[in-house]
């Protein structure tokens, strides 16, 4: 799949067609767009690894950079401070559906916007769409035997038992992620109302909520067909869940992580998996999910564009930080599904290495230029409103 075509279609659907033409127009297919990290000239840091300074390591694409607020004494914690690890883990869990932190390689890098950033050896696990994040961690229900959350699939296809069980497990995991996305959109609708968003955004968000119910039913249908018994969601733990946020900067940053990044990656991977799939019901499910997730990603960009126009410099800084954090730390898919690779591909499950490569390519070739288009749109909107406004807004300086 052409990432340039995917990015163009995404930004057009987000109402950012003019900015997209400026950002993507002259680029060859799949061309990368550099995004200024806003940090000014790279300078040396006292912490280093090998022959590179930590600042230089942070600019290497494969390096994962995670940023947190200052420690209890208002300065950046040393990389081996025991208090640092839980802060990094909490931040990594906010950026993905779970994470593993092996070690902190170096840091802090040169401070950027009051954040303390570290290069880490770790893994972020890709969400299957928009996560329901509570207290910094993605929350899903457990699966249980029930038949009222599925669209029935007539035929599981001709696969051996081990592969069939692996497919049941993988599609159940996808279904539970989709089910959690319903809760995420329910909260997002409240948040949009709370920040005075236009009716168009509220209407698109409530339609997306309905889409996620259908995605869950499609995936539970496939999971049930492969399991040979009905599978559905248990109760979702919403007690104690964070209430709707009211701070526009916080909501915009979450929309970047969960929608502009999470749902863009989900849409791209679903489209690639659909093209590789052979099982008819799997192709139908992935086709619906790919199209809807692309719409949801476009909604996130549309909302963030509105937030940048409506918000102050804090909103701009929060959006910038959320994008740069996501671009610095590509998430990985969940663990490999065991079984016959050809049969798994035919039933919508791509190998782990391919999914990891797709996520990295989508981040570099779709999310990064889309961020640049958002920044351009914000700058043009700021200049149109007031020639001096661009100097007040952080993204306006990009
Ligand atoms: Fe979905
Ligand atoms: Fe979605």
Feature tags:
single chain; mainly alpha; 3-stranded antiparallel β-sheet; two-stranded antiparallel ribbon; 9 strands; 54% helix; binds fe (ii) ion
Q: Secondary-structure map with pairings?
A:
Blueprint: H1 3-13, H2 17-24, E1 48-49, E2 52-53, H3 54-59, E3 64-68, H4 84-95, E4 99-106, E5 116-124, E6 133-134, E7 137-138, E8 143-144, H5 161-194, H6 199-227, E9 232-233, H7 248-276, H8 280-310, H9 313-328, H10 341-346, H11 352-385
Antiparallel strand pairs: 1-2, 3-5, 4-5, 6-7, 8-9
Distance between the termini: 29 Å
The Rg value, from CA coordinates, equals: 21 Å
Instruction: Work out the strand percent.
Output: 5-15%
Largest sheet: 3 strands, antiparallel
Give the distinct bound molecules.
fe (ii) ion
- Average pLDDT score: 83
Number of helices: 11
